[in-house]
Design a protein that fits this description.
Distance between the termini: 127 Å
Number of strands: 2
Number of helices: 3
Structural class: mainly alpha
Shape: rod-shaped
């Protein structure tokens, strides 16, 4: 038991001897690394603002150009600019009175 204690003590002292500063200086000199001065700064707590205002431009991922097949006055807009819509959702309703009258005239002309 005494021998084991002596061996461990000897190994411990050899480890400490290997950690001396002269060994590190020799390694630095071999690699030609300069010593750099460092500044130590203590962290400080400051009050951070709770609101942050930023200016940005938002661009849609998808975009669609809309055109009517017939001309007419818009009588209803069930959606607003920027609103998310689903496929085939009604975006605008056109006044069909002029178109309906034109279709009736064409039908009458065709039957006579």
């Amino acid at each position: 038991m005494k021998n084991i204690l002596i061996i461990f003590s000897f190994a411990f002292f050899l480890t400490l001897a290997g950690c001396n500063d002269s060994h590190q200086k020799k390694q630095r000199q071999q690699h030609n690394l300069p010593t750099v001065a460092a500044e130590i700064i203590k962290p400080v707590t400051i009050a951070a603002p709770h609101n942050l205002e930023l200016t940005a431009t938002i661009t849609a991922v998808q975009r669609a150009d809309i055109a009517a097949r017939i001309s007419g006055n818009i009588i209803s807009l069930p959606v607003t600019v920027g609103q998310k819509v689903e496929k085939e959702e009604l975006l605008a309703e056109l006044d069909s009175s002029n178109f309906t009258a034109a279709v009736r005239e064409a039908e009458v002309a065709l039957n006579h």
